């Protein structure tokens, strides 16, 4: 599909952006010179585990004393930013509190054959002709390949299915107009036609919605570029009418209001709104219109999964970082950001949890979340912070020589701003291992690659509230459940683990933190019988959904375990167990437009943010936040670096 808009508007925007970026690069900031930081000490390895680039544990002899940039956290945003900076000549040190790098990209193996992802289930815009694919190829050194979920022998051309539990899909109900789940096909035209076939009386509403998608698509990237500019700079002021203003109406309206204005058909609204739950953990009545439209633009050409699993993406980025002189260390939790004693509180480095080790650097980038950054990394010297167990911090006060990284006035201002932002939601994650005899049964048990989303009813808000506001001992359905099969999406899975193996993964929400808060300071596998019984009650409910959808797997489940918000706190450092960042509500959009960006003025000079709280949840926004952060550091001219990533000026013009 051709992506174009009126020539006069395009010319105006291009001239404005081009002129301001060139002027900014020439007169405001010079381009980064080669690093003056000495090379990092050679890596020492003593066993095969440490040869795994995702598991390089912290050793004093491997830890440099100085770096150009320190990045706290090794999720996709942290690694993407590190790769971009390392390839620009920076000496980058990535420090991760967990025992492996990757954040939501990491995976784990149980019983030697069941490999599970922890956060990455699919991503859009990864066809070889698309911009995100080309940028990801750059940050991974071209070492990743992607498989289209729609390329499936069981159900070709489909990447998602929406299954309403209030509908009867049995063959005994042929007169029911909703007698089958809604399959989401690949391709803009195919999806539009599928909607019109399922909702023939809503053709006008569907056409209007697709027109809204096209209109929003022209505004999203310019707005992200604008948010990378210094908040009160002349560059931000002069470009706001062209880069920000066209996008702001989408960020100041609720998605549910947009859907209500289009149609009264509750089923259609649910089919259009389901992505907001699984991708953002936000119902359409809280979500901004921009995010819902953005999700549909993102997936309009289908969804993709990395060959060799999500950890291969993290490993490729780590390899690229190391190839360009950087380093990624795990079991290397950062306890505090260090600043000088001047009024501007300039960043000087970090102090680690381990033995209070210090690494000096003029720039520190946090990818662990805004609240975790302020309440953890930037806490006052006399504040022990979160408890040491499961938080990633030391739980101790700082030595008297440590300077408070924030003035009292700035700390108070930040506190007020944070109070206006909502908290993210938690989930139950289910991991199921299935074994079958490939000599007696059909390949992969005739299960398709596509994801399935279970919704109790068309009323997404009411269903979500009915679950999350219940007593957790009752059997109210989850507000939503996503079911995926990682082993089927990965064409190389059989090569690694053999035939006859299927893995299934659930995400179910939203789960209140209060249900699990009592175990926040306990250790994995040592949380007691009450905790295990609560997990088992959710386990049965998830298996019931699996058997409802795929009865052929009954009797073949060989492994099952669940993750909870307490596990999310342990492995991802989320203090309240939230799976995602700050929910993309109107309040978050207001912060994005005014103060929340890679460089927050109230943070110490030399401190930057990347990740979900800067953009929204997901792999593509994580990469985008890295581009925004590099531009905030190096100046607006850094956006010109994207042009060679996309293949030059001509290819960039075609894509845009």
From TrEMBL:
tRNA-binding found in the keyword field: no
Region (Disordered): 34-58
Residue spans crossing the bilayer: 6-28
Highest rank taxon of the organism: Eukaryota
Coiled-coil annotated spans: none
Keywords: FAD, Flavoprotein, Membrane, NAD, NADP, Signal, Transmembrane, Transmembrane helix
Pfam family, one: NAD_binding_8
Gene3D superfamilies: FAD/NAD(P)-binding domain
Cross-referenced InterPro entries: FAD/NAD-bd_sf, Retinol_saturase
Entry keyword Membrane: yes
PANTHER family (UniProt xref): AMINE OXIDASE DOMAIN-CONTAINING PROTEIN, BLR7054 PROTEIN
Similarity-based family: Belongs to the carotenoid/retinoid oxidoreductase family. CrtISO subfamily.
Name of this chain's protein: All-trans-retinol 13,14-reductase
Lineage: Eukaryota, Sar, Stramenopiles, Ochrophyta, Bacillariophyta
